[in-house]
């Protein structure tokens, strides 16, 4: 039998699924067979992997026989339905959806931060929300150095975080605007071109969105800090790829801006771009296509003696989704 793993990508036609295929290719993932899955409407169509067409299959138990790992990015409802069936067929599921993240029996893993959590999984490993991943990367070295006591985080989230429909909507609205044509929102509740939408999903009765709750709960689970105080605001912005987050973090022990620069520069998966005099700081357009998260605008908080403010940007389809999912199985980020 050929060496390598049999890998399934569920949601292979979507934004995260397509990036997963790209990353499996780039990282020369040790793979002997790739199986691609999407919804009923895509069955029989093809996606490209290593220059070859791969036919989309229907999600059904028999199709997962012999699969070692299934990377799933087809949405939460689909994950709830499919993951137990895929595990039963013998595969480990790396799930990108929200379905299992807060399940106490399911590890929620960022490979650079808590690879130990993946040990002893019961078939499903959850991949955190894309904004959580980008935010938690610089929080980890700060926490280790000074013990976090409070975090205020405001995200600026790209449209591709909402899938291929989000990408199409920004493109179409931008073209319509340039032609002077009327703009009718379809995917987002408001026009996204040349606008900001200060709610990623439904605002609940407590005033917070589900996305904001994910940022709070998942950060606590990954950092193993159940009581950490976090104030989240999540905003959709007219950027195609890469989420940016403005963070102010307070620590029990003061971490100076100089020390933070050193900590961030040394942390695996984080890169320092902090030379504002040269207009050098992370921006979505510069970070798109990269696997690391980039941090800059590092400064001590004017309003709190132990506070530190910074700006972090990550390509949320790569580190925020596909890269984070592939890394643990690929030997990378195993610190
Ligand atoms: P399809 O292209 O057939 O709709 P995105 O997040 O970019 O919108 O992508 C969602 C992905 O999940 C797509 O690949 C989509 O396939 C897939 N998907 C959606 N519904 C299902 C389903 N019921 N079963 C399997 N895959 C699904």
Describe the structure.
- The protein has two domains: 5-99, NAD(P)-binding Rossmann-like Domain (Rossmann fold); 131-319, Dihydrodipicolinate Reductase, domain 2.
- 28% of the residues lie in helices and 24% in strands.
- The chain contains eight helices and 13 strands.
- The strands form two sheets. It has a seven-stranded mixed sheet with strand order 3-4-2-1-5-6-7, sandwiched between helices. The chain has a six-stranded mixed sheet with strand order 9-8-10-13-12-11.
- Helix 1 crosses helix 8 (318-326).
- It is globular, with a radius of gyration of 20 Å.
- 44% of the residues are buried.
- The structure holds adenosine-2'-5'-diphosphate.
Descriptors for this entry?
335 residues, alpha/beta, Dihydrodipicolinate Reductase, domain 2, 2 domains, six-stranded mixed β-sheet, disordered C terminus, binds adenosine-2'-5'-diphosphate
What would a concise description of this structure say?
The chain is α/β, with parallel strands linked by helices.
What would you call the structural class? alpha/beta
CATH superfamily of the largest domain: Dihydrodipicolinate Reductase, domain 2
Q: How is the biggest beta sheet arranged?
A: 7 strands, mixed
The hetero molecules present are: adenosine-2'-5'-diphosphate
β content, as a range?
Answer: 15-25%
Radius of gyration (Å): 20 Å
Give, in spatial order, the strands making up the sheet with the most strands: 3-4-2-1-5-6-7
User: What's the number of domains?
Assistant: 2
């Amino acid at each position: 039998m050929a060496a390598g793993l049999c890998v399934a990508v569920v949601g292979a036609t979507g934004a995260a699924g397509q990036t997963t295929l790209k990353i499996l290719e780039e990282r020369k993932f040790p793979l002997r067979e790739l199986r691609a899955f999407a919804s009923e409407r895509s069955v029989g169509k093809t996606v490209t992997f290593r220059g070859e067409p791969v036919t989309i299959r229907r999600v059904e138990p028999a199709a997962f026989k012999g699969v070692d790992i299934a990377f799933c990015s087809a949405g939460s409802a689909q994950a709830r339905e499919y993951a137990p069936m895929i595990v039963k067929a013998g595969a480990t599921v790396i799930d990108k959806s929200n379905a299992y993240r807060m399940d106490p029996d399911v590890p929620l893993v960022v490979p650079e931060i808590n690879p130990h959590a993946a040990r002893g999984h019961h078939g499903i490993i959850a991949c955190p929300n894309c904004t959580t991943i980008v935010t938690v990367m610089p929080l980890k070295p700060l926490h280790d150095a000074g013990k976090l006591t409070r975090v205020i985080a405001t995200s600026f989230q790209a449209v591709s975080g909402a899938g291929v429909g989000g990408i199409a909507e920004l493109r179409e609205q931008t073209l319509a605007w340039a032609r002077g044509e009327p703009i009718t929102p379809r995917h987002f509740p408001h026009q996204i071109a040349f606008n900001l939408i200060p709610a990623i999903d439904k605002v609940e009765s407590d005033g917070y969105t589900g996305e904001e709750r994910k940022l709070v709960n998942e950060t606590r689970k990954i950092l193993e800090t159940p009581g950490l105080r976090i104030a989240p605001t999540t905003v959709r912005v007219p950027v195609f790829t890469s989420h940016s987050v403005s963070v102010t973090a307070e620590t029990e022990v003061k971490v100076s801006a100089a020390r933070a620069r050193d900590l961030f520069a040394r942390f695996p998966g984080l890169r320092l771009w902090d030379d504002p005099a040269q207009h050098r700081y992370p921006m979505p357009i510069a970070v798109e296509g990269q696997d690391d998260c980039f941090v800059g605008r590092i400064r001590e908080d004017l309003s709190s003696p132990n506070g530190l403010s910074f700006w972090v940007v990550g390509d949320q389809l790569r580190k925020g989704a596909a890269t984070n999912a592939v890394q643990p199985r690929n030997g990378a980020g195993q610190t």
